[in-house]
Each structure stands twice: as C-alpha cells, then as structure tokens.
Amino acid sequence: YEIGVRLVGSEMCIRDRIETQINSILLEQETAKTELDEAKTELSEWENQKEPQPQRSEAVIRNRQRLDEAGIPYQEFYKVIEFGSELDEDACNHLEEALLKMGILDAIVVDEQYREQVLTPVKGCEDHYLFAGKTQAEKSLLDVLELNEEVNDIFSNQRLTKILSSIAYGGENEVSVSEDGSYHMGVLAGTVTGEYEAGYLGSKARERHRLAKIEECKNLILVLEEKIAGLERERNNLSERKDRLKSEYDALPGDTDLREAMKLLLAEEQKYELLRSENEKTGEQLTAFLEEIK
After folding, report:
1. CA pair distance 93, 71, nearest whole angstrom
2. Could you tell me which residues come within 8 angstroms of residue 56 by beta carbon, excluding any fewer than 6 positions away?
3. What residues have CB less than 8 Å from 68, skipping those under 6 apart?
C-alpha cells in the first residue's frame, strides 16, 4: 500500500513540474508574440515611410510641372546633397535651416544652356534656381557637404561643385552661411531660430538607413517566428508527456483496490504464521517423542 502511495505521489509531483514548465513556455510565447507584433508594425512603418519634401507653393509645383513638360532636366538641391561627416547635429540643423530661409534648400539646378529659358517669367509660376557663382570661397559648402550617388555624370558633378564652392561657410563671400546659421546674400543678412531639426538633406543616407531597418525588422521577425514555433514544439512535447503520465496514473490500482489487496495479504500472512507455529509445535513434539523412545 505504501509503495502504491509513493508511486502515485511521484507521478503527481512530475505532472506538477511539467505543468509549471508548460505555463512558463506559454508566458514566453506571449512575450515573443508581442515582440513579433511590434516588429511587424515597425516593418510596416519603415516600408511605408515616405521621403519628406519641403513645403512648396502651388506656383512652384506648377513651375516644376512646366519644366517636366518642356523636357528641361533639373535637380532639386536637397535631393543630391548629403551632410559631410565633420558636421555635428547642431551644425546640420543650423545649416539646413539657413539654406531653407535663403531659398537654396529646395532650389533647382539646371544646365547653363537653360538659364534664359527658365528665368523668363511665366504667369502663375515661380521658383528658385542655382547657378555657379563667379568667385570661390576659401572655405565653402563644398568642404562640409557632399554630392550623393544621384549625381552620376561629370557635368552635374561640375555644376554642383561650382555652386557649393561659391557659397562660403564660416567666412565671407557674396553668399555665405555661418556655423550658427546666420547668412548673407549680397546686401541681405539673416538669422535662424536655432530650434529647427534637419530633415531634408541627406535623403540618400536616410534611404540607406530605412532599407537597413527594413532588413533588420525582417530578420527579427524570422528569429521570433522560429522562437515561437520552437516553444510550441516544446509545449506540445510536454503536453504529450503529461498526458502519458495521466494515463499511467489512471491505470494504477485505486485506493480501495490497494486496501483490499493489503487485507488479503495480511490474511495470508496470518495463515502462514499460524501454520509455521503449528509446524514448530509438531516438530518439538516429534523431537520429544524421539527422545523418549531412545
């Protein structure tokens, strides 16, 4: 009986441990599923993220459409320029704000051959154009800004290089920008708020960052999905083991059966003891009898 009780207790103890493991796995699965949902949401956000565009008037939008229809090629300044590595965050913010206020940031660059055509006033259209200056600054925007991979021909490269080198940075020239964002354009001088956050220059760098983030999210999703699947397999194995233990437990004799078997065993033991005692007495009597007849 005691052996049966110990067996039942052992089975129940193992089942309890398995149940604890299953609950732990379920909790881990829920955490992984939450992380998976967050990763999928982040992936969707990165995939649907659109490149910011400076605010434009309707007249500017109409003018860009006019140039497209006329087949005049142009480049939007902010799309082909990247911040140089030597600029810290504050310097980037000040410089971009100054270029925005100066009308340079979203100005367009066209070949010199189209100068007269694009500068001919058209009713309902307006825009800013950049052409190379006549003088080069000792330290210019060319020292702190870089051309990105969209500038893929030598002529565009030369045009933009001349434009950047004609705008002084931290020095004096006909057109200049200081490190604090203050600027000069001929007789016009201006300052910036210092509260602006750069978001237009460096579009290619941001695109590379966006694509890297997309890849990172996809890899994380694969890892989390595999983790969840592995946990599910582990949980199923434990559940099967728990079911087997339950079947084994159910197959064990019940408490009543064990007690009845114990009673029969005790009764048989008593019979055995009685017979053994009678045999001992008979043996003693036989020994005594044999002694008498010697």
Report:
1. 34
2. 106
3. none
- Give the relative orientation of helices 203-251 and 2-48 as an angle to the nearest 10 degrees: 160
Q: What is the DSSP string of 220-281?
A: HHHHHHHHHHHHHHHHHHHHHHHHHHHHHHHHSPPHHHHHHHHHHHHHHHHHHHHHHHHHHH
> How far apart are alpha carbons 146 and 80 in whole angstroms?
8
Residue 210 CB partners (closer than 8 Å, separation 6+): 46, 49
Phi, psi of 84, rounded to the nearest 5 degrees: -75, 160
Q: Using CA atoms, how far apart are residues 251 and 257, in angstroms rounded to an integer?
A: 12
CA-nearest of 110, 101, 88 to 179 is 88
CA distance 228 to 234: 10
* DSSP H helical ranges for the chain: 2-48, 58-70, 77-80, 89-102, 115-118, 154-165, 203-251, 255-292
Q: Give the span between the Cα atoms of 3 and 146, in whole angstroms.
A: 84
Backbone angles phi, psi at 85, to 5 degrees: -70, -20
Residue 155 token pair? 């002529």
Tell me if 78 sits within 8 A of 203, measured CB to CB. Answer: yes
pLDDT in tens, 128-184: 999 987 788 889 999 999 988 777 788 888 999 999 999 999 888 889 999 999 999
- 200-257 pLDDT, tens digit per residue, is 887 777 777 788 899 999 999 999 999 999 989 888 888 887 777 677 666 655 555 5
Specify the DSSP class assigned to residue 140: B
- The Cα–Cα gap between 218 and 223 comes to 9
In this structure, what token pair is assigned to residue 205?
């760098």
Sign of CA dihedral 261, 266, 267, 268: positive
Q: Which residue is it, tokens 């006329």?
A: 70
